[in-house]
Specification:
Blueprint (H helix, E strand, L loop, with lengths): L13 H7 L1 H31 L16 H7 L2 H33 L5 H7 L2 H4 L2 H11 L6 H8 L15 H30 L2 H9 L4 H29 L3 H6 L11 H11 L3 H9 L1 H20 L1
Length: 309
């Protein structure tokens, strides 16, 4: 009778045993993301902090430590105070307008009508069109001579040629223009957020409210809106962070003008630190965004946690 030899198990290496440990494998999988964040976010942030505390310029690249003097210098500048105010107006104005447009757009897209699928596909166009291309088109719409809005108002007899507004030459109109363009870019994202929130509300709740006599406004503002507030807060966090740190629309449309009426922190930091070569003061301007965004994000996250409880 033949005897079949049993296979001899190969010895497991120490490296394989090391990787089989759960905590080691987790750390191994997460390590690339941590290294990525440290290199692309942490290192530039630390460099910007050190620039803001030094006298570093393009023309005099010295690393002499000066403490908080750069922050004190820009706080003494009245132009910076106006820039900080412009940033808040631009950010919260465009977010508010975008949320209002997004809410109405979401309610419109929830109703059945011919071509709804095509409209749903087209509604994301402002979100996917390159910002440079879109801003150039808007610049033509707001042009002082060839503005389509002015031409339409004059053709309808609402305005005379002499009374036509100079959209980009009047300070408050220029700020309104950049707010409108940023809200136009943001509202497709707001529509998606509202659609996701509204469709997640149980139909039984809405039916029960309807049976109890709740009308359209009461159903939306006393039942649906409180239930979708957490998901709205998440969308608002993204919108505020991206808008507060964005300079593309201002750079392409107004260059911060007229007379600094549309200058925002990111644009002022770019002009001072990159174009003028004063890296220390440019970094100090840019770092003013950090505590503001930190407070907003912490407040919103605490709000979301309380709503979940």
């Amino acid at each position: 009778m033949a005897v079949i030899a049993e296979p001899i198990a190969k010895p497991v290496s120490r490296f394989q045993l090391f990787l089989d440990r759960r905590e080691v494998l987790e750390m191994f999988l997460v390590a690339p993301a941590i290294i990525y964040v440290l290199l692309l976010v942490g290192l530039p942030l630390l460099l910007a902090v050190y620039y803001s505390l030094s006298t570093y310029t393009v023309y005099d690249p010295s690393w002499r430590f000066v403490g908080l003097r750069n922050f004190w210098d820009i706080l003494q500048n009245p132009t910076f105070t106006q820039t900080l105010l412009n940033t808040f107006i631009f950010t919260f104005g465009s977010q508010l307008l975008g949320l209002v447009l997004g809410k109405f757009g979401a309610f419109l897209l929830l109703r059945p009508f011919p071509g709804r699928k095509i409209v749903r596909a087209l509604i994301v166009l402002p979100f996917v069109i390159p910002v440079a291309l879109a801003t150039i088109a808007w610049r033509w719409l707001f042009d002082s001579l060839y503005s389509v809005f002015n031409w339409t108002l004059i053709a309808l007899g609402i305005l005379e040629r002499a009374d036509a507004p100079n959209w980009l030459g009047t300070p408050w109109l220029a700020m309104l223009c950049v707010i409108i363009i940023n809200a136009w870019r943001f509202f497709p994202f707001a529509i998606v957020i509202f659609l996701a929130g509204i469709t997640a509300v149980p139909q039984d709740v809405i039916d029960a409210a309807t049976v109890d006599g709740a009308g359209f406004w009461r159903r939306n503002y006393q039942i649906i809106l409180p239930m979708i507030l957490p998901i709205m807060a998440i969308g608002l966090i993204f919108g505020i962070v991206f808008t507060f740190t964005d300079l593309s629309i201002v750079f392409l449309l107004t260059q911060g003008g007229p007379v600094g009426a549309t200058s925002v922190l990111a644009f002022a930091g770019f002009k001072t630190g990159i174009e003028s070569g004063d890296v220390a003061h440019g970094a100090a301007m840019s770092l003013f965004m950090l505590p503001v965004l930190l407070i907003v994000v912490v407040f919103m996250l605490r709000f979301i946690r309380r709503r979940e409880i």
